[in-house]
Amino acid sequence: MARVISVEAERFPIAGTFTISRGSKTEAEVITVTIGEHGHTGRGECVPYKRYGETMEGVHAAIEAMRDQIAGGIDRAALLAAMPAGAARNAIDCALWDLEAKLSGRPVTDTIGAASPKALETAYTLSLAEPEAMAAQARANASRPLLKVKVGGDDDMARIRAVTEAAPQSRIILDANEGWTDTNIVENLAFAAEHRIALIEQPLPAGRDGILREIAHPVPICADESVHEARNLEALVGLYDAVNIKLDKSGGLTEALSLRDRARELGFGIMVGCMVGTSLAMAPAVLLAQDADFVDLDGPLLLARDRDPGLIYQGSLVSPPDRMLWG
Hints:
By secondary structure, this protein is an alpha/beta fold.
């Protein structure tokens, strides 16, 4: 029996506006793939990302181009060879994982060696804004143990000071989204260290980050836009201290597991992150992140409306997915 495939574009409103150094948005645009076989269905969600040249239309078309191969029974290993890393492959790969679990009755946790998964402490993201507005965001979330703070503008020292003073008990991750420069990075790193910042994500543009090999890292520096697949990693040794693994970058859980394991072999710290998506996108990442050093899977917390059923969040703790949702 051939598999049945559906591809759907969906939009979920964000609670307010989500702003980073590259712009703002008020809704999460996602594409959901559903694959049916023998009365069971598997689902996967992806978030096309303009930074990587992706659009909703382009990702939808890339998935549709794989329809015959999916219907014909393509497996996850063959999918890796057939498609490049990115959002389209992620949605198909995660749908295949979910379908395999449903058909076999064996949960994904068993397959990937994550038996008895636990609830994880996730970061909560504060949007880029003027320092006073970011301080207000920080005060409203000062009870959260881990905050991720979007920076990458001209007044980042004031932002760092405002947030750390407003949430003195929280650990802070800074995410510059490639917004710093060779001329300000040393000063910004020193200032971040003075304010007890725990980690800094992608301060410089991917491909223009060679200076990181030459300067001190008073705060650990994490690659985000600079890393997609395991084959990218060796070039980052000496530049970065950690890597942020996102399923939409790696092109699915299959490659993300390889990326995580190779990163550990090379001595990198591990963050598991996300785009702004629903619980369906976060679910496989929660399982991937069981032994991560930093977890940033707060996408549903930023939405005005999530899927039902969704992941269960209690404060900053996110529980493993129920199999009704995924896996």
